[in-house]
């Protein structure tokens, strides 16, 4: 690891989800070896997110100012372990007058490939979440999708648990939900915790992902759980 790597890692991570991510990622690779262009490709596996409103395809090429018009050598990186969620690859290019990549340079890039793929996946996760956030601003379809997801999984929630989950999806705070449902804030929080245990989620972002996840992406405990119906508590 070269001394210039850590600052570049920080810059790349800070740019996750932004429009200048690819440039920062290119500079991260350039801190390890000189490249004329970097091609980033990441596609969510379609069978993993069949209900997702939009599959985020990340397919960008960044070139250096000195880049030649024709590339003569390349290094293609593939994940050491196939991701269950994404099909991805990273390709670095060189052209004349630069020399071809040496074996030492190829190994150097391969050594940091787990880090590179981790950062790239986090960036696309952020883009996917932004898409889901946009969908969450369309309340007419949000509740329907939530109920559809419950039918797909066979999980059952009480009426109050359903209400607080829908409120959570639309961005309402516990206090706002308490006012809407005429409950105490602590009671709303209690219903949220119960629903979280049943659905295997940890918060709003997790709930958004759960709504569009495939069975393979769900925690094993959720897949094997026998649905239990809890009667709705008396409305008050």
UniProtKB/TrEMBL annotation:
Coiled-coil intervals, chain numbering: none
Superkingdom, taxonomy of origin: Bacteria
InterPro entries: Sig_transdc_resp-reg_C-effctor, Tscrpt_reg_LuxR_C, WH-like_DNA-bd_sf
Annotated region (Disordered), positions in chain: 215-236
Entry's Gene Ontology molecular function annotations: DNA binding
One Pfam entry name: GerE
Biological process according to GO: regulation of DNA-templated transcription
Residue ranges constituting the HTH luxR-type domain according to the UniProt record: 154-211
Stated name of the protein: LuxR family transcriptional regulator
Source organism of this protein record: Pseudomonas viridiflava
């Amino acid at each position: 690891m070269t001394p210039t790597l850590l600052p570049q890692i920080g810059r790349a991570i800070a740019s996750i989800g932004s429009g200048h991510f690819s440039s920062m990622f290119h500079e991260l690779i350039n801190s390890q070896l000189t490249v004329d262009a970097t091609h980033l490709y990441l596609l969510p596996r379609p069978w993993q997110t069949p209900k997702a409103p939009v599959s985020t395809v990340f397919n960008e090429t960044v070139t250096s100012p000195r880049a030649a018009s024709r590339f003569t050598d390349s290094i293609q990186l593939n994940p050491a372990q196939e991701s269950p969620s994404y099909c991805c690859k990273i390709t670095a290019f060189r052209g004349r007058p630069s020399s071809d990549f040496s074996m030492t340079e190829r190994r150097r890039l391969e050594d940091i490939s787990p880090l590179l793929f981790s950062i790239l996946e986090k960036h696309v996760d952020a883009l996917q979440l932004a898409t889901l956030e946009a969908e969450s601003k369309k309340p007419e379809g949000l509740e329907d999708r939530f109920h559809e997801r419950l039918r797909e999984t066979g999980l059952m929630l009480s009426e109050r648990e359903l209400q607080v989950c829908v409120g959570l999806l639309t961005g309402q705070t516990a206090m706002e939900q308490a006012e809407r449902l005429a409950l105490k804030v602590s009671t709303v929080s209690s219903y949220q915790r119960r629903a979280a245990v049943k659905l295997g989620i940890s918060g709003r972002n997790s709930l958004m992902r759960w709504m569009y996840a495939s069975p393979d992406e769900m925690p094993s405990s959720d897949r094997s759980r026998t649905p239990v119906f809890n009667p709705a508590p008396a409305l008050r």
